[in-house]
Design a protein that fits this description.
The complex is a heterodimer of chains A (about 220) and B (about 400).
Chain A lengths: L3 E12 L2 E13 L4 E5 L6 H8 L7 E6 L2 E2 L5 H11 E4 L11 H12 L5 H15 L14 H13 L5 E5 L7 H18 L2 E5 L3 H6 L2 E6 L2 E3 L1
Parallel strand pairs in A: 3-8, 3-9, 6-7, 7-8
Antiparallel strand pairs in A: 1-2, 1-4, 4-5, 9-10
Helix pairs in contact in A: 3-4, 3-5, 4-5
Chain B lengths: L1 H10 L1 H41 L2 E5 L14 H9 L4 E15 L4 E9 L1 H4 L17 E5 H7 L6 E7 L5 E12 L4 H6 E5 H8 L7 E6 L5 H11 L3 E5 H4 L1 H39 L1 H9 L4 H36 L2 E2 L17 E2 L5 H28 L2 H6 L2
Parallel strand pairs in B: 3-7, 4-6
Antiparallel strand pairs in B: 1-8, 1-9, 2-3, 2-5, 2-8, 4-7, 5-6, 10-11
Classes of the chains: A alpha/beta (about 220), B alpha+beta (about 400).
Chain lengths: ~220, ~400
Amino acid sequence: MPLLKLEKVEKIYIAGKVQVHALKGVDLEVEKGEIIALVGPSGSGKTTLLNIIGCIDKPTSGKVIMEDILLNEKSPDELANLRRYYFGFIFQSFNLIPVLNVYENVEIALNLKYPKLSKREKERKIFEILELVGLKDKKDAKPLELSGGEQQRVSIARALVKDPEFVLADEPTANLDSETGKNIVHLMKELNEKRGVTFIFSTHDPLIMQYAKRIIKLRDGKIEI
Amino acid sequence: MIKNAFRNLLRHKRRTLLTFSILSVAIMYYIVIQGMLDGFEIESIKNFLSLETGHIKITSKEYNPETFEGRIPNYNEVENKLKSFPYVVGIAPRLKISGFLDNGIDEYPVIIVGIDPEKDATVFDLRKYVQKPLGPESIWIGAVIADRFKVKVGDMLYLTFKGKKGSIVSKEFAIAGIIDAPSFVINNLQVFADLRTINEIGEFDGEISEISIKTANFNKVQQYKAEIEKALPGFSIKTWQEEGKDFLSISEAKKFSQNILLFFIILIGIIGTTNTLMIAVYERVREIGTLKAIGMRDNEVMKLFIIEGTLIGIAGSIGGVILGVILNYLLVKYGIDWSPLLPKNMNFGYRVTGIIKNTWNLKSIWISLILGPVSTLVASYFPAKRAKKLLPAECLRWI
């Protein structure tokens, strides 16, 4: 049984009088432990598809099913809970909270999933993940004091610290130099192998495509076969 | 969450400071204006009692306060009965008649008030406004009357009035005092003369118009009145509240307009805060999207903004109360000289003049401490609701 299933998912954005058909009937099945690369030109619907998979956007029509549960009819709070417990997001533009330091940016996600975790356990988990992304020494730095690559690594740590089922990453290497990009892709591959985390990337990066177990091509809101 | 709210507030120090200042100044104004108005009110009532009515006024039932007809004969009997009440601390018989004051060229209509200077001082507080004591051959006159005749203490004026039997009598008096008191009636219309002298010239046979009394507690006058009425069944007994109905109703009307003013002050504070928080929401839409994307529920996002707003409210309230208390303390101690704004020949309803000191209105301080956070809580509700409504993906697309 697939972990996640999309059936005839459509998404139409309305901007004033203009309608944009971002997704035109997408069918997709995702198995646990996969690494999927969504590729396609800009405007092909990659980010929209990621957003719908990650429950941060709603499809105009079609079904999104996770472990036999239909997500379309879930309330905003139920969807927030799903994001909190199952999903980790890595955004192209990092989206870190500027007033919080590295440690706190990671902590906020951990607190949401495990509010009753002891301080010691919390520290252990955060330092472990910061060690993994190579930022333990910069735990007190604010996002603006970090380079783009470092910020992206904080964003990865924030996504991974809560042991999610899924990590959804929107062009995670787009703002990184090739060396940092490579390190990060290696890191994700390792996590996939060690922890069985399912990764779905939207990307143009050949390196990611190289590591992906499946490549899905999108064009004009449709999956190309 | 509170820690984050604090940091968010400090993120835009200048804007937070501006909102804090608007709220603090609004609350400071509220405290100071309340203290000022209460100061006016208390001073006004104090002056009304000590210059115009006393605590309770006793007249004959037929007494007409406009023509001064219907006098009390044998007031000694009434006075003796009043002396038997332990709470009566002062008794002042007064004879009031209408008459004229003239300097041989001009004349001016006045109310002549015959007083026994010693007894009068047990109820009324005229002595602190006059230069010399009142003797059998002298008068005290209101400051506006003195202006009109261009006279000073020591000058002479004629007092003319109709005696009991209808004959017009006149006598020259020396001015012993020019009264510039916080009372329109006294300053503009009244002339005080020795009761015995007026009685003799007018042949009033010892009659008087009214007896004013001072009691141990002017808030208990209703209770005292009931007891005095039993002892003096044939007389009209009026408390200062009944006597000052017009004055008190003006004061009530003023309170209403003052409350409207205060409402607007608070409204400005609320609008200022709402504005800042609204800007904060729009500036942080992407951040809101991120928080939602990592699993923060809509209500938790809303709470974050409400906490921010309430924190500004608490800080603004405390700041406003501190500023208000400091300024009010200075105004309680030194007061403000209102005389340029309160000309003597105009009647403002308030019995105040010169330097008026503020008073402490503890209620306004409590209200401020509650009102600040509550108003910003209300103000932050709408921006927070806006943040709550946005879909996470919409927030992340926000430019």
